[in-house]
Structures are given as C-alpha cells and as structure tokens.
Specification:
The protein is mainly alpha-helical. It has eleven helices and six strands.
C-alpha cells in the first residue's frame, strides 16, 4: 500500500524515528544536567549530587518531579499570552532541528532501505534522498529560538527580564553572521546544502571536513564557539547573568515554564553538537557502528561545552560584542577567501 507515492512502511518508520530522536534528546537533556554538575564538581574539587539514588543518578528525575509540582506564578502586570507561549517558542525549535540531521547510514526492513534520518527516504533506485536545503532549515529553526527569549523578557514586565531579552537579541544577531559565514566553507567543499550529501562527502577518517585544509579547521572551531554564544552558554551567558540580572529573561518564571527554558538550553546544546558533528566531524562516519560514531561525537562536544563552563569566567558585554564584530566576523570572511584559494589550487 502506498500513500503519496511512498510505501506505508516509510510512514511507520518515520513515526518510529521521531519517537527515537525525541526520547534520545529528552534523556540526554535530563542526564546532561547531572553530568554537568558532577563534572564541574570534580573540576572544582567538590562532590556534586550524590544523595538521590546511587551516585546521585536519580537527581534529574527528582528535579523534574519537584518542578512539576511547584506553584505556577504569572506576574499581575505581565502579558499573559506572551508569557505563557514564550517557553514553547524556545523549546520547539531545539527539537524540530533534528528532522534533517542524519544520525546513521540506513537499515533494511521488509525489503525496504530506510535511512536513519527523520526527513530522509529512498527513491526507486535505492538512493537516499533528504531535504536538499537542510542546512538552511537548521539555521531558520535555530533563529526562531531567540524569539522565545525576547518574548519572555518583554512579557514579564520586569527590568531584569527585559534587559536579558535585549541582550539575547543583540547577541543572536551578532553571532548568527559568524555561524552562517563559517558554514559557507562547508558549502564550498560539498557544493550542496543537503546534509546527506555533506556527510557522504566525508567518508574515511581523514575525509572529515575539519581535516581537509587549515582554513576549514579554523572555521569549525569558530563555528563551535559562535554556537556557544548563540546558545547563551558560559562564557557567553549574558542574557541570564545571575550576578547582575538575577536570572535575566527567566527571572519571573517558575515551575514547568522555567523547566522548559532549562530543557531548551540543553536541547539546543545537543542540536548544536549534532550540527557541528554533521558539518565538520564526518557525521556518522568513523571506526564503529554509524549510530555509535554519531552519538559518541555529540557527547564529546557536550563534554567540551561543560568543560568550558567550568573553566572560563563570563565575558563583559562590550567584550562579547567586540569578539563577534571585530574578531570573528573578519576572520570568517578571511577563511572563506582562504578556503576558496585552497580549493582552487589543490582541487
């Protein structure tokens, strides 16, 4: 049986892939909080969570239950609709970005070749097809997340929240340019916006784009750092700076609305790690099973994000803007030109 030219099995496989990706992100988000607290505790010669369950492993579950039962508070002077919808606007883009990310090669089931990508399918010749502008889709989805932060800051009717929202919007505009320009180096090598094509062109250990030439190597590092600024992660967590803005854009939030902002931050960390892996680190290519290769690279990048948080202090706001406009933006433009010369000279 076929629907819109595709066998029914593809729709069942798509639903299953959505569920697997959703559960993977949720579990990673839950235990990334635990891992980060334990890791930072180790680096600061502390113990970290160790009371709830063996070695503190049930701490994320306890935190989730606690937040679920806390009182929901909406400030009297807040714009209630925007205040309620803002956490959803932040959370949803982090999850929908996974639709186009290939997390493995393909599996064969009932005679059909099913790619391990939610938005992927195979044609009559057995070739894997996907969204041919997948990178643009991810950039568009990631750009939507900041609207939730801006809405939260404006709708709370709080000076601290408003300052946090304004900082987030300025930060997103500043570093979105760098993220887009560093990805141009990937386009120049792949000659495609399809993530399947980009991953397929990185077969072999030294086929990963980050190893192709020194310009794209630096572009990969700058992309990762600019992604941290996009995520409002330390040392770029100016929109929620606790020492000066209490909690910034989420100062007035409580219970599950606060938890959704918390989930959005860690889900965006997973998404940024997955995109970096796909664009620069060979995607699912590697020495082990494709899914293990992909997940291992994503978890390694999550570890680096946590390591950076434990190591570096927060930037001042003028330093943040200077880094984006006076440092990263010119370097990204130089890398595009250098990459073009390298490709022309060495093919």
């Amino acid at each position: 049986m076929e629907i819109l030219g595709l066998p029914l099995i593809y729709y069942g496989a798509m639903i299953l892939k959505v569920l697997v990706a959703f559960v993977f992100v949720l579990l990673t988000v839950a235990y990334a909080t635990y891992a980060e607290r334990k890791l930072i505790g180790f680096m600061q010669v502390r113990i970290g969570p160790n009371r709830t369950g063996p070695k503190g492993l049930l701490q994320p579950i306890a935190d989730g239950i606690k937040l679920f039962f806390k009182e929901e508070i909406i400030p009297a002077q807040a714009n209630k609709f925007a205040f309620v919808i803002a956490p959803l606007v932040s959370l949803i883009p982090a999850f929908i970005s996974f639709a186009v990310i290939p997390f493995g090669d393909s599996i064969t089931f009932a005679g059909y070749k099913i790619p391990l990508q939610i938005a992927g399918y195979t044609d009559s010749t057995g070739s894997i097809l996907d969204v041919n502008v997948g990178v643009l889709y991810i950039l568009a989805a990631a750009s939507m997340g900041v609207y939730g932060i801006v809405l939260a800051g404006w709708s709370s009717n709080s000076k601290y929240s408003l300052l946090g929202g304004l900082r987030a919007s300025a930060q997103m505009i500043s570093y979105e340019l760098t993220v887009g320009l560093t990805i141009v180096c990937v386009f120049m090598l792949s000659e495609s916006l399809s993530l399947q094509t980009i991953v397929a062109n990185q077969a072999g250990l030294f086929g990963w784009y980050i190893f192709r030439n020194p310009f794209i190597f630096v572009a990969g590092i700058i992309f990762f750092i600019a992604s941290l600024a996009e995520l409002n992660r330390t040392p770029f967590d100016l929109p929620e700076a606790e020492t000066e803005l209490v909690s910034g854009f989420c100062t007035e939030y409580s219970s599950m609305k606060y938890a959704m902002f918390f989930m959005a931050e860690y889900a965006n960390m997973v998404t940024a790690s997955a995109v970096t892996t796909t664009l620069f680190l060979g995607g699912w290519h590697g020495p082990f099973h494709p899914v293990i290769n992909f997940v291992g690279k994503v978890y390694f990048l999550l570890f680096v994000m946590m390591w950076i948080r434990a190591t570096y202090p927060r930037y001042r706001y003028d330093q943040l803007m200077s880094l984006g406009w006076k440092c990263f933006l010119p370097i990204a433009l130089f890398l595009i030109m250098g990459n073009a010369f390298w490709i022309t000279l060495f093919k």
